[in-house]
Amino acid sequence: MIEIDGVSHAIGGQPILSDVTLRLPKGGVTALIGPNGAGKSTLLSLMARLQRLERGAIRFDGLDVARTPTDRLALKLAILRQETPIGTRLTLRDLVGFGRFPHHRGRPGPGDQEKVEEALALFDLQDLAHRFLDEVSGGQRQRALVAMTFAQDTDYLLLDEPLNNLDMAHARHLMRTLREVADSHGRTIVAVLHEVNYAAAHADRIVALKRGRLAFEGPPGEVLTDERLGALYGTPVTVREVDGHRVALHYA
Ligand SMILES: Nc1ncnc2c1ncn2[C@@H]1O[C@H](COP(=O)(O)OP(=O)(O)O)[C@@H](O)[C@H]1O
Ligand SMILES: [Mg+2]
Question: What Å distances lie between residue 249 and 13, 172, 209, 235, CA to CA?
């Protein structure tokens, strides 16, 4: 379980997150939604301790993020950041291999290679594994980054906008793969998603942030309504039900 208790965060006196308290059970897929600037990336980075927690507490299965040594934390959770600074003269296999670093600390063994091959296969990257990062499309690169996160073999995966750069076919495929990662590999996924309809179709839970506060949370079938989404994004949204999933219409 992820426990977030009274987390507040300010930058230069400006409140970014205000008293966020949240419980996320182990397993499944949680979609973190909300308008630009709501604080989604900040919350994820505090959860992974990429930034120092100023107020409140965050625990993963009782492990206090503020007090856990970095090497131990890297075996508990993996994070894909919104912007990932990486060199281009790396092959996709090398990139995915970086995910194993917390396990082997620079001396990969056969077990690490196995995990890398497993991740490449799961994310459909085997045929591209020898290519350099600057020789693949933005979508393929994005998929390799998610595969790297998976290869880290942690209970928790925090993914900041994993659907970035993906067309509808690749986005759907990645969401289905994330579902499999949760269902068959027993991992817990928290993903920032901009497209609410992917959240509606694939997530077990929605957590909505607005202006640094928790706006609402719950299963998609309960919380995704015209009123809630309209208020969250400040734009008219019509929600319909299609094949048992909520669908938000907001293009016209
Ligand atoms: N390093 C920073 N310095 C100043 N303001 C920041 C910084 N990082 C984020 N912010 C501000 O914090 C707010 C939340 O940002 P962020 O967590 O990235 O939102 P989201 O991911 O929901 O779009 C925004 O208003 C953003 O401008
Ligand atoms: Mg963000």
Answer: 37, 18, 20, 11
Q: Which residues face 250 on adjacent strands?
A: none
| Residue 37 CA, ligand 2 centroid: distance in Å | 7
C-beta separation of 247 from 200 below 8 A: yes
Angle, CA 162 vertex, CA 110 and CA 123 arms, to 5°: 40
Pairing of strands 28-33, 2-11: unpaired
Q: Is 149 in the pocket of ligand 1 (CB under 6 A)?
A: no
Domains of the chain: 1-76+154-224 (3.40.50.300), 86-153 (no CATH)
Strand partners, 32: 192, 207
CB 219 within 8 A of CB 24: no
Backbone angles phi, psi at 58, to 5 degrees: -135, 130
Quick: pLDDT tens for 196-237.
999 999 999 999 999 999 999 999 999 999 999 999 999 999
Q: Name every residue whose Cβ is closer than 8 Å to that of residue 78 and which is 6 or more positions away in sequence.
A: 99, 149, 150, 152, 154, 156, 157, 158
Of 9, 1, 2, the C-alpha closest to 213 is 9
Map tokens 């508990």 to a residue: 76
Query: DSSP secondary structure string, 33-85?
Result: E--TTSSHHHHHHHHTTSS---EEEEEETTEETTTS-HHHHTTTEEEE-SS--
Indicate the top mutation candidate among 20, 42, 83 to test ligand 1's pocket, ranked by most ligand atoms within 8 A of CB.
Answer: 42
User: What pLDDT digit, counting tens, does each position of 44-81 carry?
Assistant: 999 999 999 999 999 999 999 999 999 999 999 999 99
